[in-house]
Every structure is written in C-alpha cells, then in structure tokens.
Amino acid sequence: MQLQAFTCYVTKMQIVQRSISRQVLWRLALPTIVFMLFSSLDRVNVSFAALQMNTELGFSPAQYGFGAGILFLGFLAGQYPSVLLLQRIGMHRWIASCAILWGCCAACIAFVQIPLQFYALRVLLGFAEAGLAPGIVLYLSQFATERERATTFALPMLAIPLSLVIGSPLSGWLMKMSAPLGMANWRWMLIAESVPTVALGIAAWFYFPDGPGQARWLDDGQRLWLERHSANPQSAGTRNDWSVLREPMVWAAALLWFCLLSGAYGIMFWLPQLIRQLSGLNSLQIGLVNVLPWAGAMLGTYVNSAHSDHSGERFWHIGIPAAVAALAILSAWALGAGIPALAMLFVAGLGLGGAQGAFWALPTSLLKPSTFAVAAVAINMSGTAGGLVIPHVVGILRERTGSFAAPTVLIAALLLLAALLVAYIRRMFFHRDAAIARAA
Predict the structure, then answer these.
(1) How does DSSP classify residue 29?
(2) 69, 390 in Cβ contact below 8 A?
(3) Which candidate, 381, 82, 374, places its Cα nearest to that of 242?
(4) How far apart are the C-alpha atoms of 148 and 229, rounded to whole Å?
(5) Contacts of residue 133, Cβ cutoff 8 Å, sequence gap at least 6
(6) Scanning 34, 137, 172, 226, which has the fewest C-beta atoms within 10 Å of its C-beta?
(7) 378 with 250: CB under 8 angstroms?
C-alpha cells in the first residue's frame, strides 16, 4: 500500500514537472533565444559589413580585427553592473533597456567614417549587450530543475549559431540588393538588422515575468513546486557571496570557457574573409557557405546537451566535442576549397556547439544561490576576454603572414587546450568529493 502511494506521488510529480517544463520552454526559453539571436546578429554582422566597409573606409586587417574585438572591452566592463541591475529592477525592465540600447548602437555603426568612431560604438554595443548571456542563465535557473539544467541553459545558446545560419545569407542578400537613398550596401544592412531589436525591446517590457511568482501562466501549485525544486531558487534575502571567486574550480571553468569562446569568435569574425580568399565567391554565396559550421553548432548544442542531461555525465560531453572541433578545423584548412573542406567545417561546428551546449551545466551544478550570479558572471567575463583578444590577434597574424594558416593553428590549439582542461577539472572535482567524503 505504501509502495503504491509512493509510486502515485512520483508519477504526479513527474506530470507536474513535465507540464512546467513545457511552459517554460515555450514561454521563456524560446523568447530568450530570440533576444540572444538578435544580440549575436547585431554583434557579428560586422564580419559581413567588412567585405565592403574595409575597402570603402580604408581599414587594414589589424584595424578591423581590433574594432571587432574591442566590443568585448565593453562586455568586460558591463557584465557585473548589468547582472546586478537585473537583480535590482527585474527581468522585464532589464532586458527591454538592454535591447533598445544595443539596437541603437548597432544602427549607429552604419554611419562611421573613421576607425575611432568604429571602436567607440563597438565598445558601447558591447556594454549594452554585456549582461545578456549570464543574466539569462541566472533568470532561467529560477525555472529549470537540476535534471534539465544542460538543456535549459543550452537553448538560449542556440541563438548564436542560429543567428549566423539566418544572418549569414540575410546579410549577404542585404549587401547584394539595391540599397535605398543611395546608401552603401553595408550601411543599409547594419541599419536593417538593428531595427527589429528595438521593437523587441519595447515588447519585452510587457512580456517577461520577473520570477515564478509573477508568471501568471503557472498555478499556485506549480509555483510552489518550482520554489522547492528549481536549480537556483531566488529569495528577497539572498545576498551575493563573493568568496566563491577564491575557488580554483571556478577559475578553471573560466579558463575552459575562454578557450571555447576564443575558438568560436576566431571563426565568427574571420570566416567570411577566409571563404572569399579560398573561393572568390560573391557576398550572397559566402553567406550560404558561412552557414555550414553554425548549422552544425546548432545541432551539436541541442543533441549533446540533451544527451548530457539524459546520461547525467558532464565532463566528456565537453572535452570530446572540443577535441573533435580542433581536428576538424585543421582538416578543413588542409583540404582547401572543395566539398571535403565544407564537410569538415560542418563537423567543426558540431564539436564546437556540442562543447558549448553542455558547458554551463558543469560549473552551475557546483554553485549555491548566493554564489550563482557572482561565479556565472566571472566565468562569462573570461569567455568575453577571448572575444576581446582573439579577433585582434587573428588580424595581426593575418596581416603579417598574408595567410590564414597561423590563425587556424591558434584556434585549433585553444580548442585542444579546452579538452585538456576538462580532464583537469574532472580530476579536481573527484578529489574534492573524496575529501568531503573523508571529512564526513
């Protein structure tokens, strides 16, 4: 009798969890994907603008690389203030303000004439977007259970490769069409892609609940269930615990995220120019080819994060895909133009997306509500540093060598280092658990 009652209780809880998960997916996770998508698009469409902008404005590869990367200086400066603002004013006010500001900055880049203007607007754009990724992780953690951690955090990350799958041919098409008012095509493209962001920002003010308590689509029982079972329950009395920054595992995870994002940003800001050098294709054709690694990244992000949740394993779901991405990038460069190289670009995207998709489930599983925001921002800032450094370094290597060979080796080496770091973090993790067990 007791066993039957327990079985009925477990079944009821599973039904409640599935119902909440479906609603969170459709009402919160997917809408945040849209904001992440436009954030990424407004950040990286400059890689297509550069196909015409660099010639028209006389930008050298180093100047363009510096401008592409200096956006992340704004990221570094803005992440903690942005997340603290989220905690103070709530989700709907915060994301609306961020989106309207970054949309305006992205549009203003269309009017630059000199490198200094380009640099200044890229920094402002980075500052406006700075807290978006860690803020969304923090926000969704109130609605996600421990079991669904990887998939819930990975879904908004799908927006980055999706923005390139959609944005690459869109940017190529906008730059190929006849622009209005006699405007240069690259300027028209930047303006056209920033307008939807401002409109979304206005809509967000009226859409997002600040937490489970304000989610009118949840009933009282579902709200109570989330308060007890969410991955990161929030309360009014929760204070940020900054002592977590003394934990070696936090900084090991931060270095791992730096390597993974460095690989992604190195590809993101330079692949269109690499494709043009190897193939001589026009803007629209380059946009279509540029889709390949990011289509692979979307598939890898979703499938690998879901498998990580299903199996409960976190470490090798990051390390193995990172190593695969490194080897595929080297193979794509060695093969040159042709179908085999394109296939390797797709495989590289699979590995890169798979590693990034499973990543956040690892460090966040080690955190408490009081340390969650502080550690998540510190880790994300380290990834941001990769965006600040790598595009500029790639530009310098490209300018000095006249080839993409050295940048390709650099990106592959960073991804191989990421795979090695996973093994190191795994060892630290098990040593820590063994020490806790001995103390008990």
Answers:
(1) I
(2) yes
(3) 374
(4) 11
(5) 36, 156, 157, 380
(6) 34
(7) yes
Tokens of residue 318, six digits: 């990051």
- List pLDDT tens digits, range 109-167: 999 999 999 999 999 999 999 888 878 878 887 877 666 666 666 767 777 788 777 88
Cβ-Cβ contacts under 8 Å for 387 (sequence gap 6 or more): 69, 71, 72, 75, 261, 262, 265
Q: How far apart (Å, rounded) are the C-alpha atoms in residues 353 and 31?
A: 20
**Structure confidence at residue 14 (pLDDT):** 63
Q: pLDDT digits over 26-65, tens only? A: 888 888 888 988 988 888 888 888 889 999 999 988 888 8
Helix, strand or coil for residue 45? coil
CA dist., res. 50 & res. 72, Å (int)? 18
Task: State the Cα–Cα distance between residues 138 and 369, nearest whole angstrom.
Answer: 10
Amino acid 145 reads T
Q: Which residues pair with 145 in a beta bridge?
A: 230
The tokens describing 311, both together, are 């199996």
Distance of alpha carbon 11 from alpha carbon 185, whole angstroms: 58
**Closest alpha carbon to 42 in 197, 251, 272, 181:** 197
Looking up tokens 């479906």 gives 22
DSSP 312: -
Residue among 350, 355, 332, 348 nearest 419 (CA): 355
Alpha-carbon gap, residue 83 to 80, rounded angstroms: 5
Residue 235: CB atoms within 10 A of its CB come to 8
DSSP state of 208: -
**CATH H-level superfamily of 2-51+58-212+241-439:** MFS general substrate transporter like domains (1.20.1250.20)
How many of the other CB atoms lie within 10 Å of CB of 180?
9
Q: Tell me, what's the pLDDT at 198?
A: 94
Q: Is 84 exposed, middle or buried (0-12, 13-18, 19+ CB in 10 A)?
A: middle
